[in-house]
Design brief:
By secondary structure, the chain is an all-alpha fold. It folds into two domains: 45 residues; 69 residues. 59% of the residues lie in helices and 3% in strands. The chain has seven helices and two strands. The chain has a two-stranded antiparallel ribbon. A hairpin with a 2-residue loop joins β1 and β2. The longest helix is centred in the N-terminal third of the chain and has 28 residues. The protein is elongated. The chain starts with 13 loop residues before the first helix and ends in a 13-residue tail after the last helix.
Amino acid sequence: MTDGRKEIRCRLAPAEKLDFELTCLGLGKSQNDAAREAILEYVARHKSLVDERIRRVETTDVAVSNNETIASLLHEEKNRRGTWRRIATDAGMPTPRVRQLAAGEHPTNEELVALSSVLTRDAQPISTSQLKAIRDCTFPNQMPSNTSQRT
């Protein structure tokens, strides 16, 4: 009689397999129980990250257009101001970095804060939370950076 469970197989390097076996033995858990627990934790963590991203996007004060990106907003601003240097100066950022962002690179949270002081939509400033929502929709597989490191 089966309980409806399905079998999942994976391949581990010999050292990984030995580590797993020794860990299970040390914890007094069966390998099946430990593997099931690891899979369930992985799935729960992924669902949590997706739910958090959805919550952040839903709590922004404006919906994100499917074709709106940080790069497109920078290009619109360049059309208004005439040069990348003016945008960079007003945002307090290096001009080469503004050009990289306009080419589609992933902006950090700090860069979005700086850009929120210069980017506009319908003559209204775009908030940092709106820019973060746009970035998160543009780069769905990257977690937001809380540091000045560029991802």
